[in-house]
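Deliverable D5.2: sample structural annotation.
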Amino acid sequence: MAISYTEEMKLALLDSGSGNWGAVQNGLMTSIDAGYEITLTADEDLSAGQYKVIYIDSSDKMKLAKADADATMPAIGLLPNNVDNAVEGKVRVSGWIENGGWAWTPGALLYLSASTAGALTETKPTKAQVIGVAKTATKILIIPNLRMSITETRIIDLTLATSPGDGSATGAIITGAWGIIYTVDGIYANRNFVVPPDWDGVSDFVLKMMVQNEIAEDDGDDVSFDVRRSPISDGDTNADSGATEPAILNLTGGDEAINKVNLVSAILAYDESGFPISAGDIVTLKITANLGGGGECTGPLWVISWWIEYTATIS
C-alpha cells in the first residue's frame, strides 16, 4: 500500500489499494484528537525542545519564543517532540499537549515567559501573550492569542487650579503662564489622581513638574520638593500620612537663570512596602517645596505644569 502525506499535518494519503484500514483510521483519529500541527524547519538546536514554545523567525523557520522582545514573538505553538537543528519537525498550534513534568493550576492562563526562552508561565509578563489554558496540572489546551499585549507611556494631567483647602501654595500668572507659586520653605499643594485600569501593574508612577525660576538662582542650587504620596482604596481609613519621595534637580549650566523652566521628577514606587499602590486606588499627593536651605534654591519657584506618567498595557 503506497502512502503519501499532507503538507502541514502529515496526515496519511492512501492509494486505493488494499491495506489495514483500521490502523490507518486509528492513527488519523489520534492525530486529529491531539490537535492541529504544522511543519517547520528548526533554525537552532531544538534537540531538547520538546514541550517548548515556538515562533517563526525571519528565515521562515522555527526558534524558541520569548516574551522580552518583539523579534522573538508572537509564539505560534509548542513542540510535541525534540527536533535537531536544520531538520523538519511538527509544531502543535492548537489542541492538547501533556507533560508529566508540569504542575499548572487547572484553569490558569498560561503565558509565554519573558525570562526563559521557550517556557510557559502563569505569571503575566509585561509583553503578555496567552499561549493556552491548563486543563489539569499536566495537560494544557493550546490556543495562542496572536494579539500580544504591548505597553506605552501615558499621562494623567494634574490640574493647576487652586481653591481653598488644596494647600498653602496659590495660583497666579508669571510671564504669561498660569502656575502654582511656591514662595517660602515648607509651602505645599495637594493633588489626587486615580490609578487607571490600563496601568500595567508592575511599574512605578512618575510625577513630572515643569518648574520656573522667578529669580536668578545660584549655579549649583537644587530645585527640591518632597512628594508625599498615600494610596487610598475602597474601605480604607484616610489619614494624613504616606511615603515621601524626593524630587530634586541640580541647577547648573544656565538652568539657574531667571525665568528658566526645568523638568523635575519624582519616582512614586508602586511597591513601596508601607504604602503600595494598587489598581483603582486614589493616590493623594502633598508636594512641598524646600527653599532657602543649604544648596537649595531661594525661590520663589513656579510650577507651570505637572502630570503623572505611567506605563499602560494595551491588548
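Annotation notes: The helical segments are 21-34. The mean pLDDT is 90.
The annotation will be released with the project's public dataset once the embargo ends.
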